[in-house]
Specification:
The chain is an alpha/beta fold and 338 residues long. The chain contains 11 helices and 14 strands. It starts with a strand and ends with a strand.
Amino acid sequence: MKDVSVILPVKNAANTLYRAVRSIQVQTLENWELIIVDDGSEDKTSEILRELSASDPRIRVDTQQHAGIVAALNHGITCASGKFIARMDADDVSHPDRLRLQFSFLNENPKVGLAGTKINYMGDSEAQRGYAAYVDWTNSLLSWRDIRTSRFIESPFAHPSVMFRKSLLEGNSGPYRSGHFPEDYELWLRWMSQGITMAKLEETLLDWYDPPERLSRKDSRYDPKAFYNTKAKYLADWLRAESHDSRPLWVWGAGRITRKRAGILRGHGIHFSGYIDIDPRKTGSRVENLPVIQPEELDLSNNPYVISYVGNRGARAEIKTYLLNRGLKEEHDFIFAA
């Protein structure tokens, strides 16, 4: 049995494949296997894969007719012999100690199901400020509490940075699912809804490249609406599971974008008592036949629950401080979403 099975789905990655595979070959953890699933490549990827597998017995290559990343991931996992599954993409680079540190962490922390790492953004931070800001944000989520309480904002992990126990994919927990949603984020939310604990190592162990042809830029499963729908489904399930939906639910933010995102949650059967906003032009009015109040008007005597959809990260910190100062507890009395 291998310690770690690295799963690398690939399609038309001839320009970066050598670099990605080499970063696995130089890992300080030696007992690994690399399973590469070629999802119907049409460039020179297949030739490169034949060369790589012939030169290193730890590399296994399987080819499928083009069926998409989920099919490739699940096929690779069925071939895996490792105790742990590590993800890798063909345009990224793993640092030499990545597998060893994640493997050691999961071995030493048997209650943790998945461990990610901090990542190094290798794109154009000026031209792609949104991606760069996302990397900064996800790198700030190191504790289980921060990961858990931030899960409805964005995906707390970059997919190719994670390692998880293969046993998590058994039964109802896995595998990856196909649908109009990001397959990795849906899996993290599903696992967290089942009580699986996750962690992130403090070390930066992956160079995350951002090429123009990256799948998340082209596939509608990764567009904002798909993310909002995925988050709303699991947020609604969580609110019901924790009985928060039986409390007066207030949405912080009465602007058009906030109301649109909250409306997706309403589509999952969650009903609101009203909106909270600091804009005096909105407060005192009614929006969608619901009252808009100022923060200090929130009546704590009837045990309200607050869902904040305010997107500005600085504003999130201010809202959190305000609610904590009023005696509310994150998760128990309020949650942030996007």
